[in-house]
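Reviewer 2 asked us to include a model.

Predict the structure of this chain.
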Amino acid sequence: MNNHVLPAGSRIRVISYGPFRELKGTIRKVDTIPGLEAGEAFCFYLVELEGTHIKEPIWFECDEVELVDCPSSDDERDLAGSLASARDATPFLPSNEH
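Predicted model (structure tokens):
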């Protein structure tokens, strides 16, 4: 069981087997059932999914979703380096000399 409750506004990915598997979305509401056992909480997330024709948010159990990972610092550093080198590159300009 998941001991960590994600807050509303968190970006998630559906990991349960079903028609919404691998879709991403945003948690809009959290309902918890506290006090099942010491340190455990069971919750449901109302999720607004992306990439589906269903416009209403859908409820998922806490074990059916995972937090979307942020880029690692190495990925961010690589992206920043590639943007800097693209910015510093001199574009090809044809000369007016014939």
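The chain has one helix and five strands. The two ends are 74 Å apart (CA to CA). We have added this to the supplementary material.
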